């Protein structure tokens, strides 16, 4: 899921550039589903998506639907210098969310007040390690939907 070409929205925000292994993640996100690949042989979930299971080396995989619940494992408030489109939205947060369904899987995203809220709309004082969160989906650009996170207890 590492971008090979930097694609941006009309306002300069970076877009994901899916590779073959990660494309299903983005397709499910566009449908409002949080799914991660799991080994079809040993059952271990793996993220980021990759062709081979790091536990048993099987190439068989299925995409399992997650509950969309997690906990803030870590976070950062980026400081300048930032790309211009992001500097205009600062201060904002970037969170690392540990999934309740698969605690070894952590997803990077933003904690927001609503799915379509601006990145800088949440008071940074509300960020807490371990805070329970739930996924929401935001259409960043035509055909590109990204997961974001809401506090479960606002």
Break the fold down into its secondary structure elements and pairings.
Elements: E1 7-8, E2 14-15, H1 23-30, E3 35-39, E4 61-65, E5 69-76, H2 84-87, E6 94-99, E7 106-109, E8 132-141, E9 144-151
Antiparallel strand pairs: 1-2, 3-4, 5-6, 5-8, 6-7, 8-9
Put the structure in a nutshell:
This protein is mainly β.
Describe the structure in your own words:
There is one protein chain. By secondary structure, this protein is mainly beta. The chain folds into 2 domains: 49 residues, no CATH class; 87 residues. The protein contains 2 helices and 9 strands. The strands form 3 sheets. The protein has a 5-stranded antiparallel sheet, covered by helices on one side. 19% of the residues are buried.
Radius of gyration: 16 Å
β-sheet strand percentage: 25-35%
Write down how many β-strands occur, each being a DSSP E stretch of 2 or more residues: 9
Give the number of helices.
2
H/E series: EEHEEEHEEEE
Could you name the ranges where pLDDT drops below 50 across 5 or more consecutive residues? none
How many domains is the backbone divided into? Answer: 2
Structural class: mainly beta
Strand order of the largest sheet: 7-6-5-8-9
Largest sheet properties: 5 strands, antiparallel
